[in-house]
């Protein structure tokens, strides 16, 4: 196919769009691949659509190769199945809801576990039909709180989601492994650099779950790795290595001190080190109590106190993941007024427990650890308050930040942190949805059996942004051959009729050999054309320029920046060799 730039529906922009912060977003807009319609909602223009379709093709080829079967469910869904699974409520503000003309509730599908379970229930009824894996490549809708970076986090986006149905746990393990292998193949073909990390299960409930994170400093996911053991996890999934409990014998009694003006951890530590407590105190010796309100879907707001060592901040994502599906907010001045036992800056376990407030602590707060914490009176703290002796929390919570250098949960060494973009997610769901919809089939022994499910997602449109993000350079986009919108970008950089005809002829030959060619036949200066070729990012740029008169054509590698001259007569063979690697 020959695509003429004189004709292509394409306008490249010289300036970055005002709302763009990350490179992939800026470049995809400047290069005319996508256009913004609303926050998190984008149109695909010709070249962008080609890349999207190429990613889809790779995903489909690998899914088909693993034996999964493609179907397509609607994006417009009735409320009932999601009501049955309680996700109509659990999904909260993230769900796009609408009504039809009769007033019936509908939604735009954010993910399709319910519908796949019902679809299998509708068609299959015997153990002989299993295992089966179904997938779709489909537009998903999520009213993301913070749509970001163009198509990277959209409110409308394309996902490949698949669902495996097995009769045994071993079967599910095998289906899960097959997906994991397939995802590795897909990302290898796309040239994406990634890590596989353990993940929390999130709103879906279930057991084994891993995420594929593309390595990127602009990623919203933080993951940690232990280089000694190979342990790798999303920080949301990190379980704190709790120390051993300490015997109470010999621990001094707790004592309340006047500590005026010590509402912050810094001022408290400063006070403690001037108070002759017999040891040097650091922020890690203090216990700060953070008040939030939580609400389970459809329930009432409830106060919750979270106690974490004073040297750590709360990590909002970890807290969110720990509380899911409940949501949380920080408490307000009004809440303080309504609960006078909460003394701002001096909240302690005593008042919390006396007033029946649920109190969860960091796993480091084990029995026998001794803390400096609030004494529930303005200007007072208590020193030597011992967990398990002087207060008994209602449980532990993973809410504190994970830091570089923290011990790995497997005890093998320190953790190293980095950032990534989630591109895929594999998940052993179990029988959650087959239970909800009583999906039973006839077993071998004549008794009913309930299939167990896996659910697996790949962000197809997000991958376009991820590839752009990982591959670009300061001049523009750079597409790996597998997803490039064309094989060759042929620039006519010579006004001479003979050169123009020669370029047309070469383009026709390349087309004839099965390559797709972008032909820059515009009446523009060579400088403008070269800049656009760099911006558009086709991996091989061929220039018919001044050298044509001497029978020469220039080949430029967009990745290495290298260029070389070849004989016009041998150009076709050279280009074919370069493209086919
Ligand atoms: P995230 O943590 O980034 O919000 P998620 O965990 O909600 O993602 P899943 O429900 O696991 O996402 O969806 C499967 C895949 O779909 C993700 O791995 C990601 O690649 C893609 N995806 C999810 N949300 C979006 C979005 N808003 N825009 C583009 N792709 C998305
Ligand atoms: Mg996920």
From TrEMBL:
InterPro entries: aa-tRNA-synt_IIb, aa-tRNA-synth_II, aa-tRNA-synth_II/BPL/LPL, Anticodon-bd, Anticodon-bd_dom_sf, Pro-tRNA-ligase_IIa, Pro-tRNA-synth_IIa_bac-type, Pro-tRNA-Synthase_IIa_type1. It catalyses: tRNA(Pro) + L-proline + ATP = L-prolyl-tRNA(Pro) + AMP + diphosphate. Its EC number is 6.1.1.15. It is found in: Cytoplasm. SUPFAM superfamilies: Class II aaRS ABD-related, Class II aaRS and biotin synthetases, YbaK/ProRS associated domain. One of its GO terms (cellular component) is cytosol. Gene3D superfamilies: Anticodon-binding domain, Bira Bifunctional Protein, Domain 2, YbaK/aminoacyl-tRNA synthetase-associated domain. It comes from the Bacteria. CDD domains: ProRS_anticodon_short (cd00861). It is an enzyme of class 6 (ligase). Transmembrane segments: none annotated. GO terms for molecular function: aminoacyl-tRNA deacylase activity; ATP binding; proline-tRNA ligase activity. The keyword Nucleotide-binding applies. Belongs to the class-II aminoacyl-tRNA synthetase family. ProS type 1 subfamily. Homodimer. Catalyzes the attachment of proline to tRNA(Pro) in a two-step reaction: proline is first activated by ATP to form Pro-AMP and then transferred to the acceptor end of tRNA(Pro). As ProRS can inadvertently accommodate and process non-cognate amino acids such as alanine and cysteine, to avoid such errors it has two additional distinct editing activities against alanine. One activity is designated as 'pretransfer' editing and involves the tRNA(Pro)-independent hydrolysis of activated Ala-AMP. Consists of three domains: the N-terminal catalytic domain, the editing domain and the C-terminal anticodon-binding domain. This is Proline--tRNA ligase. It comes from Rhodococcus tukisamuensis. The lineage of its organism: Bacteria, Bacillati, Actinomycetota, Actinomycetes, Mycobacteriales.
């Amino acid at each position: 196919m020959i695509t003429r730039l004189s004709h292509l529906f394409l306008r490249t922009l010289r300036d970055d769009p005002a709302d763009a912060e990350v490179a992939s977003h800026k470049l995809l807009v400047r290069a005319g691949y996508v256009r913004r319609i609303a926050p998190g909602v984008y149109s695909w223009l010709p070249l962008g659509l080609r890349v999207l379709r190429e990613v889809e093709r790779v995903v489909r080829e690998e899914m088909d190769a693993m034996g999964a079967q493609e179907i397509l469910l609607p994006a417009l869904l009735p409320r009932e199945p999601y009501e049955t699974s309680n996700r109509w409520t659990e999904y909260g503000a993230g769900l796009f809801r609408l009504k039809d003309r009769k007033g019936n509730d509908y939604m735009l599908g954010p993910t399709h576990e319910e519908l796949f379970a019902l679809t299998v229930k509708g068609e299959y009824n015997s153990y002989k039909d299993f295992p089966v894996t179904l997938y779709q490549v489909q537009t998903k809708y999520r009213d993301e709180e913070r749509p970001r970076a163009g198509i990277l986090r959209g409110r409308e986006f394309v996902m490949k989601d698949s669902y495996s149905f097995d009769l045994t746990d071993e079967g599910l393990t095998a289906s899960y492994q097959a997906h994991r292998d397939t995802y590795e193949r897909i990302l290898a073909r796309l040239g994406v650099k990634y890590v596989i990390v353990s993940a929390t299960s999130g709103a879906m409930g279930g057991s084994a779950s891993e995420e594929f994170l593309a390595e990127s400093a602009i990623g919203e996911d933080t993951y940690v790795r232990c280089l000694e053991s190979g342990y790798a996890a999303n920080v949301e999934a990190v379980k704190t290595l709790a120390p051993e409990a300490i015997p109470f014998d010999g621990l001094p009694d707790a004592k309340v001190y006047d500590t005026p003006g010590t509402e912050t951890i810094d001022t408290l530590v400063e006070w403690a080190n001037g108070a002759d407590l017999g040891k040097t105190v650091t922020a890690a010796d203090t216990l700060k109590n953070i008040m939030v309100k939580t609400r389970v879907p459809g329930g009432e707001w409830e106060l919750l106190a979270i106690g974490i060592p004073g040297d750590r901040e709360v990590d909002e994502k970890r807290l969110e993941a720990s509380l899911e599906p409940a949501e949380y907010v920080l408490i307000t001045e009004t809440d303080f007024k309504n609960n006078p036992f909460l003394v701002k800056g001096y909240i302690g376990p005593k008042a919390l427990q006396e007033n029946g407030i649920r109190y969860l602590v960091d796993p480091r707060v084990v029995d026998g650890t001794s803390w400096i914490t609030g004494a529930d009176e303005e200007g007072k703290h208590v020193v030597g308050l011992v967990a398990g002796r002087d207060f008994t929390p209602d449980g532990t919570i993973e809410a504190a930040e994970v830091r570089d250098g923290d011990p790995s949960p497997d005890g093998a060494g320190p953790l190293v942190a980095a950032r990534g973009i989630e591109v895929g997610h594999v998940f052993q769901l179990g029988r959650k949805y087959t239970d909800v919809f009583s999906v039973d089939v006839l077993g071998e022994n004549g008794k009913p059996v309930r299939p167990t499910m896996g659910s697996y997602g790949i962000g197809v449109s997000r991958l376009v942004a991820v590839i752009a993000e990982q591959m670009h350079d300061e001049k523009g986009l750079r597409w790996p051959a597998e997803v490039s919108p064309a094989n060759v970008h042929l620039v006519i950089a010579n006004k001479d009729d003979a050169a123009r005809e020669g370029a047309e002829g070469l383009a026709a030959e390349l087309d004839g050999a099965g390559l797709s060619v972008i032909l820059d036949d515009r009446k523009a200066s060579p400088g403008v054309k070269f800049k656009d070729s760099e911006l558009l990012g086709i991996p091989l740029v061929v220039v018919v320029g001044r050298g044509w008169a001497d029978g020469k054509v220039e080949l430029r590698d967009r990745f290495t920046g290298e260029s070389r001259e070849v004989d016009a007569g041998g150009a076709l063979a050279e280009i074919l060799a370069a493209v086919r690697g």
